[in-house]
Queue: 3 jobs
Job 1
Amino acid sequence: MSKGLRILVTGANGQLGSEFRFLQDQYPQWEFLFVTREELDLSKTSGISPYLQSVQADIIINCAAYTNVEAAEDHGADTEQNNKIVNAQNWLLNANAPRVIAEWCADNNSVLIHFSTDYVFDGKKSTPYTEIDSTHPINQYGCAKLLGENEILDTGADAIVFRVSWLYGTFGNNFMKTMIRLADANGKLSVVSDQVASPTYSRQLASDVLSIIQRFPNLKEKKGIYHYTQYGTASWFDFARRIMEYTHRNIPVSPVTSDAFPTKAVRPVYSKLDSSYTEQTFGLKLPHWEDCLKECINDLKS
Ligand SMILES: NC(=O)c1ccc[n+]([C@@H]2O[C@H](COP(=O)([O-])OP(=O)(O)OC[C@H]3O[C@@H](n4cnc5c(N)ncnc54)[C@H](OP(=O)(O)O)[C@@H]3O)[C@@H](O)[C@H]2O)c1
């Protein structure tokens, strides 16, 4: 399957979508198409199939999502789901649109690569979550992303769903950039130390996805859910400390508990994903998150 592929990337201006755009030149044998919200509004689900029909991609990499975890709790743009008033965009982007994309893929023999989240878990475990652990999301974003997974699987499409956590990178807004900005503005940081998972460099993720497409011509045989995070575990505090260290900012970073920053969305206290099944299936050796962070900070400079 891997020669002469036409690959469509949605959410092309987002953090992860931009990484695929950045890496596309490494795969001149493939035709990449990048679609933004302006060209295809995925919240208007009736327009999705006609658009996909016109493009006829062999692989769709769906990087589009509603990722504002806090705003997903808001009822600003309300709709009703299971008799509850919810944020419409969260559910449209994270559940309804993935289903429509997957249905098109199932009908047209195309492969869907989709991204979900560690927030499908409640965080009550104390060892890394595997793909067979029970899901139990504790915020609206996690609920919508989990429904999205189920909708995709339900269509029977040849879909690979990577659950990822704490994405950061050189593009878009993310925790790393926020910490650098706050450090420069305030000269000190207070960061939550009671939420633990794995920071994941989005360029490494995108690079691994493209390498998987290249190395597995029978990608359809690998359909299913996979956990992808880089090696090692960190709290937001650990992550912030390393960001300061690797960017040579000598400022105090204090650990605080989540109560210090009340949020509408409850986050799991522990959501480290076990990536060993992904490593075995796809022959990957995922690097340590600290090494990826050093690389990202180098990439930021260039
Ligand atoms: N970021 C994380 O820490 C994290 C953690 C776990 C899982 N994930 C998952 O990883 C994937 C990639 O996340 P990311 O960090 O790259 O997210 P992101 O930077 O927020 O990008 C999301 C993209 O979706 C697009 N989008 C939003 N609404 C749309 C609409 N109505 N129609 C079409 N496109 C729309 C956005 O368009 P605009 O550019 O126009 O806004 C943006 O390009 C997502 O599935 C996310 O749920 C992310």
Note: The longest helix spans residues 88-108.
Job 2
Amino acid sequence: MTVPTLRLPAQLAEPLAAGHPWVYRDHVPGHPNLPDGAWVRVEAGRAAAIGLWAAEGAIAVRAFRRAATGGPLAAPDRAWAEAMVARAVDQRARLGLGAGSPIATDAYRLLFGEGDGLPGLTIDRYGRFAVVKTYADAYRRPGSDAHALLVAIVRALAAALRLKGVLAAPRAGEPLTALHGEPPPPEVTVREHGLAFLANLHEGQKTGLFLDHRENRATVRGLARGRRVANLFAYAGAFSLHALAGGALRAIDVDVADAALADAVRNVAANAAVIEAAAPAAGPAASRHATLTLDLLADPAAALRHPQLAGSDLIVLDPPSLARHKGQRHAALRAYRRLNAAAMAALPDGGLLATASCTAQVSPEAFRGVLAEAAAAAGVDARVLHDAGHAGDHPVPLAFPEGRYLKFVVLRVDRPT
Ligand SMILES: C[S@@+](CC[C@H](N)C(=O)[O-])C[C@H]1O[C@@H](n2cnc3c(N)ncnc32)[C@H](O)[C@@H]1O
């Protein structure tokens, strides 16, 4: 197969050679008239790569194979896709995830796009099902090279893991479609570190659950004994469930989405035995869990003063992404400052704040900076106990810092003496 070649400015040679997987449209000279989702070769200095062309959007080319010093490069084919899938599956198994998982987890990210050398798509596993999310339209357009690649990947995954169904994540207002096999039942039960979670693959947020926080939830479990937890932006209560399983005395899930909170109640019921065994003197699981429907972004300080949250000494703060593009970055930083200052002000001396940001436009350094400003505004001393991102099933190439979207920091909040 011959593919067209695009010559890029020399300044892109270094990132291309280092493995940065994106070429932004404003770096592509002229306006090449190429079919959406077709293979294209890009060259800058001596570096070259083969990638998929996107006719629209800020990212013009997603690079799959590269050669730091040029030379021929074949367009990825079915055999190549199968090898990439086999490698990703093997890497997850080596992390202890997957069949017979020693950490009792069968919900995790099978493919993390750029991090697994397959840019523009993610695939999450939920037991015997997998959910594909695409970030370039051509993946879903039959006839394109991108679609042919996706078909090969899906087949290889389904065969390697004997999946019952591989699904395209539903877009707003669209029904879920099966790319392979059968659609899932309305609800799938999966396990995360031994706890049972209900996942609605038809209508859930993200691809069903927020898998990127798996190890962060385990961290909270290890810190929760004897604590009273306020889980803000709770979704289906996954952080609370881990905290209760770690011996928390009580947990309150707060979110604006009623349906998610209803799932949180069912998740606690499904894990009642584990929760009660973790703190036998604390009473039945259901009596130690509550939900609260509240808009937390409108006025965080007022929300944190809600009487049901009084006495919380472990606050989890996991808002949704607060900036979709660079232009919203400053507003996002302001919102993080307000939220975190309100949470710190509400904590007693020695309280813990487990705070997250999934906004890609906010770097780990910027997030730390905002936390320091929030501590100053709240008049507290805050110390970092733990600083993390996503788990090993979300690998990030060193040359692609944009890939590290998740920040997770645990702070101890001390009142100045
Ligand atoms: C990143 S998710 C939380 C994931 C969760 N911590 C977990 O581990 O599964 C963000 C949550 O914020 C909720 N949310 C969005 N806007 C909100 C608002 N203004 N007030 C309260 N919750 C909101 C969404 O419904 C969603 O459940």
Note: The domain at 210-414 is CATH 3.40.50.150 (Rossmann fold).
Job 3
Amino acid sequence: MANEGGVGIIATVALSLASDHYRKAKDYFKANIKALADELAWAREISPQGIIGVNCMVAIRDFEEMVRTSVEHGAQMIISGAGLPLRLPEFAAADPKTALVPIVSSVRAAALIAKRWLRTYRRIPEAIVFEDPNKAGGHLGASRHQLYDPEFDADRVVPELAEWARKEYGDEIPIIWAGGVWDRGDIDHALSMGAKGVQMASRFICTHECDAADSFKQAFIDAKSSDVVIVDSPAGLPGRALKTKFIEKLFRGVEVESKCVATCLMECRCRDADETFCIAYALHKAQQGDMEDGLLFTGSNAVRHTHMQHVWQIFEELTGQPSPSRLVAQRG
Ligand SMILES: Cc1cc2nc3c(=O)[nH]c(=O)nc-3n(C[C@H](O)[C@H](O)[C@H](O)COP(=O)(O)O)c2cc1C
């Protein structure tokens, strides 16, 4: 992603579970710090010039450590949602050049964050991501009954956010549209509504470069639109996911693996009330290719996948420009 002129983002949830650091010492939080440092070093090695960022969720117990580790190891951007990242500038203070980008689902949340940051830290967000709960994948910033409420629709909120940024901050906070962006037409639409960029996840799942197992990617190629479902996450939020055997078991009330492996969430229905399932375990299992016990997060239109592609091919399609990494490779 970073090699093609995009921003490559590393996710931090359950990052360490696949690492030797966790296998050796079984200390999830210490291992997460080491695994994130490794990921950042590896990302920099494969993309020496690209922009590399980290997604740190507020609802995670090691949010502060993940932010501090990211900054210490050279992340150029921190994207942060699943709660209001009110103290993010404090945790990222070691390098004021690191771009700080909250994820919101309303103008109210954006205004609260920007005001608090300005008053407390004398800075404003470098950008704000609006994540459309009707279309985005993973944890969604709205309750189940609000999911298809037009009030949270990107077509409504992005222009409002752009207007708010222009009025309050003289256009200094670019708004990024996330959720449901698949092709160039979607990008043009987002830009026409006042966004300055887009955040995309689902489109890149069936790429050779995506580090999930082949069976994870194949599940998307095989999926039908009725397979995109909403599950109740242990974090107390709805999540959009692909229907797999794991989800079928959940819906039928069949017992699924619910032993808390990481104590990763601040508030967790699995750990604290013995309900739902262990999210770290379920996401990790999916990434490893276990379709029985794995949870596959997805955006609303990820079932449009029909075949595997390279990231550079998607970028060429989206930008209409030759990929910089392909040109370098061809020159030898
Ligand atoms: C497989 C998958 C994993 C995701 N993991 C995270 C995550 O760790 N943190 C986060 O803030 N958002 C996460 N998201 C949400 C995306 O960052 C993004 O905002 C959203 O899915 C964009 O919509 P799209 O998938 O339609 O492109 C995830 C989405 C998917 C599909």
Note: The chain has a mean pLDDT of 93.
